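Listing S7. Sequence submitted for prediction.
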Amino acid sequence: MSLDRNTWALLVLNGLLAGALAWLWLGGEPDLQWAQPDAPPPAPIRSASVPPLTDLSPGAREVAWQHPLFSPDRQADVSKAGPDAEQLSGVRLTGVVVDGQTRWALLRLAGQHNLKLKQGEALDSGWVLHQVDAGSATFQRQGQAYTLNLPVPRLPAPGAASLMTLPHVTAP
């Protein structure tokens, strides 16, 4: 009986597999080396006691309820300006430019026109631009100072606009 080439290949493969199984069974595999256990986690940090909330009067709670924090029609806080600040009441700070020693304040005046004012220059009302920082501009006149701050952008109301709209596509 003669064996063909495929049969011989299968016999050799079976012999190799039997030898590998015998080697594993007789202890040919190396001893396992376990890693050292990690250090125990640090003890949790105990937080300080939280002071109790201050009790608000019903009137204060009602105002907070009527004008929620993220409402788009919430008004800005009332300005704490001095008596001579009325001349700057129509002036809004819309931007600042700080380039080394050169500093400008970008203003919007009451007449809805824009003005670029360099540090040290004065408005028609006599207020002199004394200092320009990254978020504010300070004016001085007759020993009094008044600071205009850049407005902080507000988030829209949660349901006012969706973040992403997808086009309507019908399935083929």
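Caption to Listing S7: primary sequence and predicted structure tokens for the chain studied. The CA atoms of residues 16 and 171 lie 57 Å apart. DSSP finds two helices and six strands in the chain.
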